[in-house]
Structure formats: C-alpha cells, structure tokens
Design goal:
With 410 residues, the protein is α+β, with helices and mostly antiparallel strands. Helix 4 runs antiparallel to helix 5 and helix 6 packs antiparallel against helix 7. The chain has 13 helices and 10 strands.
C-alpha cells in the first residue's frame, strides 16, 4: 500500500478532485464508507453520497470554533492505494483501513471522545481517501509532523496482514555491505562504483555526485567542471559518510585530504625546525620567522589580541573587563618583543664566536702537529752524531774536531 498526504483550506475545496469535476475524461461517483463526526449536533450519513459532509462544513466546524488559532490549512487528506496485482478490498475493509490510519496517526485515538472528525470516501477501485480536520473537539491542534511515518508504517503493516507483501528470509550474508571504490580516472573525472543499493547512492548524491545508469550499470561521477582540490575534498568526505554507514570504501590515495595548515600547525613546524637546527646560523634563520619585528609570528599574535580587544569594545562597550584582558595580553607581548629585540644579534654573535673558536682550534692543532714532528726528528739527528742542542735551539751545529791517523789532534 502507498499513502499520499495533502492539506486543504476547507473540505469543500476537495469536491472537484473527489468528484472528478476537473478531469476531462468524466465525473466520478464518490461514496461514503465510514466516518466519525464526534460532537456534531445533528445526525449525519455514514454511507452514501458524501456531498452533505463535504459541502456542509461538518468536518470544518472545530476549526471555525477556534477562529484565528486554526491553521491556514486545517483539512487533512490521506489517499491510500493498494497493490493492483492483488484483489481489491471491500468497502468494509477499506473503512477499517481508514479507521486504523486515523488511530495510528493520533488524529482519532480509540476511546478518545475529543479526537478529530474524519470520513472515509471511495471514488475508484484499489483506493480510499480519508478526509479529516486537524482541530480536535477540545480545541487543541493535532501535530502532523510524524504523520507520514505513522501512515506508511501502518500501511505496510496492513499489507503484510493481507498477504500483499512477499516475506523473504535473510541471512548474515545478506547484511554484508558492498565494497565501494572511489577513483580518480586518467581523464581527470572522479567516479564511484559498487553503489548497487539505494542508501549508498543517496549518500553519494548528497555529497555532490551525479548518478549515471546505463549499460555499464549504476555509478556516480563528480561533474567534470569541479576544481580538483574541491573534488578531492568531496570524495574524501563522501568516503567518510559511507564508512560511517558501515560500507567498505576503497579511496584512491590521490584523493586523501592533507591536514589543514592551521596557525598552530605552522608554529609546530617552526618548533621542529628550531629543535633540528644544526648550528647557530641555522637557528638564527628560524628564529627570524618567529621574532621578526615587521612580519614575525609574535608581532602578528600581538596585533590579533589588540584587534580582539578593540572589536569587543565596538560590539558591546559594557564588556570593558573582557576587552581589558585581551589588551593586557597584547601589552605583555609588546614587552616581550622589546626584551627579545636584540636576541637575534646575540645569536648571530654566537655564530661569529663559534667560527673564531674553530679557527683558533685549527691553528693550535697545526702548531701541535709541528712540535710533534720536530720532537720525533731529534733522535734521528743524535744517531748521526749531531749535537742535541742543535735540535733544541735551532742553531747550526758546531763542527767536530778532526782526528789524525795517529789519533793526534791538529
């Protein structure tokens, strides 16, 4: 069974549709098959021609009593059709269907004398029209927000009881979600395949994909005019929705979203660069991004706090305490900037001192190596007969006295 709800200003406005007066193929002959007029002050028909009920304002009376409190469209009509593949129901059966619908929605609960007035009308086969007012006899209004859900649920229940629904036995395998693949094709278009069920198709359409049904089967594609960054974002968020619905999603790695480059993440990157500085020169370059007096992160933060203080005052001058808190924080950053004004020069000086120290160490190393070389050369000279003093003083050696054949000295 399929139900369709609509509203009208008066029951008389439904006469053209129920009687077929606006249908060029000919008029219809509606018949009343059941009704409940609640507190009506006169006897009214329960069967036969509904003209008196529709045109006499019987169902409209509760809305007229409350005057301006009545909604603009107080008349409620539910049209129900049964499956044409099954035999039509009798008038008594359709009347019972109408009674169950007004009970399920809460329009006319069983045993409630102050419920809404209603009437069931037939003007063709395989269908019934339930006409009611949303104003109860006690003057309260019926809330119609959940009516579509209650009506369709009751129609499904009735169809099952009549045997109009085919019951199937489901197994655990039937509840396995299909695997959905979202790929970026070489042509540049982004296509989702494997969406054979209606839920996944609805989620993809909600994300911005267009459904295509052809001889290839059902698939979804983003419009080719979508910019690539936006398309990647849509695909990634569609994958998140599908996974939340317990689908298995294979998302192309090229469509994964990169983390947003937030101000906090930028400072975190700067902190990592400071920690990884190999020398003072590299550290000074990184600190310049943080402490630059014109465009550094510290001065931009101070400007933001100062602007917040001014904006709070502009929005509400009475919030002066809140504005002062931001102003105080801004002043503290100004003081911090003044204290760190010369810090980059000191880091650069540390760089120069480090370079001078290295030169001194290199010179000392050369002198040490020369001294070691001279100290190892001295024993060799002694072995050749050279005086030790020559090696230690650096003076030319004194020649040794000549010795004759007889051993006498000349």
């Amino acid at each position: 069974m399929i139900a369709h709800l609509q509203r009208a200003t008066t029951t008389a406005a439904l006469i053209p549709a129920l009687y077929g007066l606006d249908d060029p193929r000919g008029s219809l002959r509606p018949r009343l098959i059941g009704a409940d007029y609640r507190g009506a002050d006169k006897q009214l028909p329960l069967f036969g021609d509904p003209q008196e009920v529709l045109d006499g304002g019987v169902l409209d009376a509760p809305a007229l009593r409350i005057g301006a409190r009545a909604p603009e469209q107080p008349v409620w009509m539910c049209s129900v059709r049964s499956d044409p593949r099954h035999p039509d129901l009798s008038d008594a059966q359709w009347a019972d269907v109408a009674r169950r619908l007004v009970t399920a929605t809460g329009l006319a609960p069983a045993g409630d004398p102050h419920g809404c007035r209603w009437a069931a009308i037939r003007n063709g086969d395989q269908s019934v029209h339930v006409v009611a007012t949303v104003v109860r006899e006690d003057g309260y209004l019926h809330g119609t927000y959940r009516d579509p859900f209650h009506v369709q649920a009751e129609c499904t229940r009735i169809a099952a009881e009549l045997g109009h629904l085919t019951r199937t036995v489901t197994t655990a395998k039937d509840h396995r979600m299909p695997v959905i693949t979202i790929n970026a094709e070489p042509s540049g278009s982004i296509v989702a395949t494997g969406t054979s069920d209606d839920l996944s198709a609805t989620l993809l359409r909600h994300a911005g994909f267009q459904q295509i049904d052809d001889w290839h089967g059902r698939r979804h594609r983003l419009p080719t005019t979508t910019p690539r960054p936006e398309a990647a974002s849509i695909a990634a968020h569609a994958a998140q929705m599908l996974r939340a619905a317990r689908y298995s999603v294979d998302l192309d790695p090229k469509l994964h979203l990169e983390p947003l480059d937030t101000p906090g993440r930028q400072i975190l990157h700067l902190t990592d660069a400071i920690r990884g500085a190999a020398d003072f020169a590299e550290l000074a370059g990184v600190l310049d991004e943080l402490l630059d007096p014109d465009d550094g992160m510290l001065v931009r933060l101070q400007e933001a706090l100062e602007t917040a203080s001014e904006q709070i005052t502009d929005l509400d001058p009475d919030q002066h305490e809140l504005s002062d808190r931001f102003g105080t924080a801004s002043d503290q950053l100004v003081t911090t900037q003044a204290e760190l004004a010369e810090v980059l020069d000191e880091v650069q000086l540390a760089t120069s001192n480090t370079a001078g120290t290295a030169d001194v160490l290199a010179a000392d190393d050369l002198r040490t190596r020369a001294a070691l070389a001279r100290s190892t050369a001295a024993p060799a000279a002694n072995a050749a007969g050279a005086p030790v003093a020559a090696a230690s003083t650096g003076l030319p050696p004194v020649p040794a006295p000549a010795v004759g054949a007889a051993g006498r000295t000349r």
